[in-house]
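Why does this matter for the project? Reviewers at the last site visit asked to see concrete outputs rather than summary tables. In response, this paragraph embeds two records directly. Each consists of the residue sequence and, immediately after it, the corresponding structure tokens. Nothing has been edited or filtered.
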Amino acid sequence: MSCSLTHVDAKGQANMVDVTKKKPSHRMAVATCFVQMQPQTLALIDANQLAKGDVFAVARIAGIQAAKRCADLIPLCHPLMLSHIDIAFKADHQTSRVYITARCQLTGATGVEMEALTAASIAAVTLFDMCKAVDPGMQIEGLMVVEKQGGKSGDWQHRSHT
């Protein structure tokens, strides 16, 4: 059971994957999700009329901070020195959704999928927190990795984003 890229050691115990022998390379991952809300809520966000302030600015900072702290949140996740984190928001008035895209990058020996997922999800939760007083029925949906680049397994794109 002892494989160099597993979270389980020879004794069956959980441990951090040993990436010591992996060569550093450019790694990038993109994760997305969306927040479904009432049309009036989206209008308030657009007009910057919510009591808690600029929803997208606060959610962006929360997502960035979460990506940087991913190893503190997810057991056995490597602490990484991310070189870039970008979080974008797109309001879709037709569907009354806010789409969130988080992109994380580094040059290192392990991927950044967990950091991108954490950034997108925490940005969504922060958006929810800032709007819940006017729309407690919002839903956060569709969290997934849609693209990754680099590493031994190479580049990948989710079939819905090709």
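We now turn to the second protein, recorded in exactly the same manner.
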Amino acid sequence: MLQNNFGAVIVAAGSSRRMGASQSKVLMNLAGRPVLSYSLDALCACPLIARLAVVCRDEDREKIEKIAAASPKQVELIAGGPERQDSVLNGIHVLEDCDYLLIHDGARPLVTSNLVQAVCEDALQYGASAAAVRVKDTCKLVDEEGFVLETPPREKLMSVQTPQAFERALYLYAAERAASSGRTFTDDCQLVEAAGGRVHLVQGDYKNLKITTPEDLLSAEAFLAGEKKMRIGSGYDVHRLTEGRALILGGVKIPFEKGLLGHSDADVLAHAVADALLGAAALGDIGKLFPDTEERYRGADSLLLLSEVCRRVRESGHEIKNIDATVMAQRPKLAPYILQMREKLAETCGITTEQISVKATTEEGMGFTGSGEGMSASAVCLLS
């Protein structure tokens, strides 16, 4: 078991009947991205979540695999069941090494990493937790014919959302109780409550809506348009060439008689990208995060450092939209390695290769790089 670590189940196996569309709602376009990708980003940004499972329909699997491939954490895909309760259990079974579970609807794309973190921490304290908001309207309990039976006091009513998180043993006990009695539930809190468990609620977010109808998709787009703030960052790095070192650029080892000199592997391209991301998020620079006075960073793989940078950028609430980088080097020819650099950097940053550009240029024999003494790289990025 991974002590106090969560396995996250994203439920994405619904039929989407109320959307009136031929494709699953988690695959629909929301501000230029699939709905599901937003939830994956938010859950991956939570350090307590170790692994994820997406429960989906067989006909959606290929498309969801492509979305999940951009995630920085391990994502398993598993087939859904006849009921939501069955789908969740299918996902749980592939996360058997996690002692806590977090369950989230793939159709709630506006969940934040802060809310995910809050629910996880609450579950560690109470054993069961869910996000919820107070209802704004007066609610009525009605009979089958539509007549009012009761008006519950509004101040005691909460609208429950996902994510919801549970101690694994508690959830499986509740699921066994439900199976033995033949009962099914559409809400995981209700499942646990029916087995005698107590669920603690934390403050949710009114923007954390569930996309069920076309109007919900329009509301989500409006929220994103109103909240989106763009941040631009720039980065620059330079290293001297020397014999006896490997030449590594963008995580790619390039055959050459010299390599770049530095405390880490001196990947000048990865360093420039990292500084651009940190600058856009106002998080300092790589010299501050990974000082060359610390022995643990000697010879470090710069892609691992870049991965940590991306984690911090996402934890600060930012999303990487695109990166544009240029390497300045007189020799060797870098064109044959450009695509591989893009792929390595994209994988590390948790984005697609279409979101990152890498270019190479000489400086016509002029200056530090033109004389072959070293190489430099610059990068700009856009965060939202």
